[in-house]
Specification:
The protein is an alpha+beta fold and about 350 residues long. The protein has helices at about 10-20, 40-50, 55-60, 70-85, 95-110, 140-165, 245-255; strands at about 25-30, 35, 180-185, 195-205, 210-215, 220-225, 230. Among the domains are: about 10-110, no CATH class; about 180-230, SH3 type barrels (Roll). It contains seven helices and seven strands, in the order H-E-E-H-H-H-H-H-E-E-E-E-E-H. A hairpin with a 5-residue loop joins strand 5 (about 210-215) and strand 6. The chain is elongated.
Length: about 350
């Protein structure tokens, strides 16, 4: 409850006393079981708190009498107002603000005098309204209830006819999932209907809303599904293949024997027509290196093998490893250090 700018303090006090007839603030004493009224203190606090002039309010709060009654506070405020009454301190009565405050004040005066209010903070009091009834207790006549039902039925039929007209040439857009590539409509700018941006869906929300990470800038934006169109990128991400099938194929190949195309080892005694190996100090044959003794079996035709072992097959494990014959020299920089 506040005082208007053009309202005198005695009128504001009378308004507070009129409201006090409805809001009765009293409680029972625990010792004597009698009703103790706090009306005087509450009215005084409401009066001081509702002063429109802040300077007068600060002067009243700083007065020597810190516990005045309602009448004493009213006289102090009236004296302060009389001292400050001048043309410079008052608002122009012809201004727009004065017209608004006066109209609101007159509207409060025309309200129902016996209507409960909530200005004093009383729980259960209703607020001023055009219909003087508590919230939830309004029960109109049966005629008004029937009229309301008929209006709802008429609006329902009109809404259904409009829905058929609005849904013509429309379709339900398929839902999107996280990871889908979409095109974004501009919605603003010189070309709001064009689809100039692309992005990826990073989050799905309710009511057809999707969080999109825009390609290039990396910014995140919230868009409705009507402004998004799914598309397949030209270079899709390559699928990751597992090594499981490759390992299975490698095991299958390693289980079968591999036969290199070399001369087969001699499993029988050497024949007499085999070429003799020249000794190391032989001077009749051309010069040669370290002799590698190899044995050869009987020379069979390709058609004489048994079919299980291919002809001219040899096992690499039976041959001695080949060693390099090049001389090795220490690098020149080794001479600069004492190599242990």
């Amino acid at each position: 409850m506040h005082q208007d700018r053009d309202e005198p303090i005695w009128n504001f006090g009378a308004h507070i006393r009129g409201q006090a007839r409805i809001c009765k603030y009293s409680t029972k004493c625990q010792g004597c079981e009698l009703d103790v009224s706090f009306m005087e203190e509450i009215l005084r606090d409401v009066l001081i708190r509702g002063i429109a002039d802040q300077e007068i309010q600060m002067e009243v709060l700083g007065h020597s009498n810190q516990n005045p009654s309602f009448e004493e506070a009213l006289r102090i405020i009236e004296a302060k107002e009389a001292g400050k009454r001048s043309a410079s301190s008052l608002l122009d009565t012809n201004g727009a603000e004065a017209m608004q405050t006066s109209s609101s004040y007159k509207k409060e005066q025309k309200s129902h005098p016996d209507e409960p209010c909530g200005y004093f903070g009383r729980i259960g009091h209703g607020k001023r309204d055009f219909i003087p009834v508590h919230p939830g207790r309004y029960k109109p006549h049966i005629t008004w209830q029937e009229t309301l039902a008929l209006r709802k039925g008429a609006l329902r039929n009109r809404h259904m006819r409009g829905a058929e007209q609005w849904s013509e040439h429309t379709k339900r857009l398929p839902p999107l999932v996280v990871g889908d590539h979409v095109r974004l409509q501009n919605q603003v700018g010189l070309n709001p209907k064009k689809w100039d941006y692309t992005g990826v869906v990073v989050e799905v929300r309710q009511f057809d809303q999707y969080v999109i990470r825009v390609d290039g800038s990396g910014r995140v934006t919230l868009r409705n599904k009507r402004f998004l169109r799914k598309y397949e990128p030209y270079n899709p991400t390559r699928q990751v293949h597992s090594v499981g099938p490759d390992l299975a194929l490698w095991r299958a190949q390693s289980s079968t024997p591999v036969y290199p195309t070399l001369t087969s080892p001699n499993t029988t005694a050497p024949s007499d027509d085999a070429a003799p190996v020249p000794p190391a100090n032989c001077t009749a044959c051309p010069p040669h290196g370290t002799a590698v003794q190899t044995t050869t079996g009987p020379q069979n035709s390709p058609d004489d093998h048994d079919g299980a072992t291919p002809p001219n097959a040899a096992y690499p494990g039976d041959l001695p490893p080949r060693r390099s014959t090049r001389p090795t020299h220490r690098p020149a920089w080794h001479q600069d250090f004492d190599m242990m």
